[in-house]
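User: I'm curious whether this sequence folds into something compact or stays loose and floppy. Could you predict its structure so I can see for myself?
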Amino acid sequence: MDYQDIIYEVDGPAAVITLNRPERLNAWTPTMQREYRDAMERADKDPAVRGVILTGAGRGFCAGADMGNLNSIASGGGSNPAAAHAATAAAGGIEANYQEPHSWPLAMRKPLIAAVNGPAAGLGLVTTFYADMRFASQSARFGTAFSKLGLIAEHGASWLLPRMVGTANALDLLYSSRVIGADEALRIGLVQRVYPDDELIPATKEYVATLARTISPRAMMITKRLVYDSLFQDLREAVAAADEGIRVTTSSPDFKEGLAAFAEKRDPVWPPLE
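Assistant: Here's the prediction. I'll summarize afterward.
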């Protein structure tokens, strides 16, 4: 696919997906949505890629849905919610949770880090919720925006946000639509790292490089699935799934290589994911 609204690059073990409408603060469009998914699936299949970084071009991350799309919805030209979910109607069990229009990144095999380099609002902010973690520049700003437009949090934000920052902090952000800076986002747990603006992408790439050098890609893949599946399980189910994960990993070539590397005091050479 030739990309119009994103840029896709691979730098060492990191695939970098850049939302690329800087003149509109990378406002989200249906084209961007399709291209983002295509790029994510491309990275997930590439054995050389060990982690994916999502960021924005220019001075912003993503200002939310393009206002032209919102105006179309307001005038009655929006999509049919029933049709949007029709593709998932036949899915059952935990897997169905990963087949919603914006939830599918949770089922990708590799780590996804949102490198938030400026304003992230509305749908742009929700997109970061579906990353495994969020790193921010000092210039990053976060705002839900929905209530000021007479809307509610969309695409599972009201389910995800309390799990990240707690119920009271989530309701504060969702009620007020206030914009918070990187330091407050770090304090409440919305982001995991804050860097000077010019260090955000290099530091995030270094994080991915460290994972690639030291951590089994199979262990990360199974851990990611266990963590997200556990959100929909009771303790008994989570323990059983983890026990099965141990069975799989102890019989894998990654375990043998990890033991050998430890004994020989060298970096492991991990086999690629199939």
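Summary: The two ends are 23 Å apart (CA to CA). The beta strands are 6-11, 14-19, 51-56, 112-116, 119-121, 133-137, 141-143, 180-181, 193-195.
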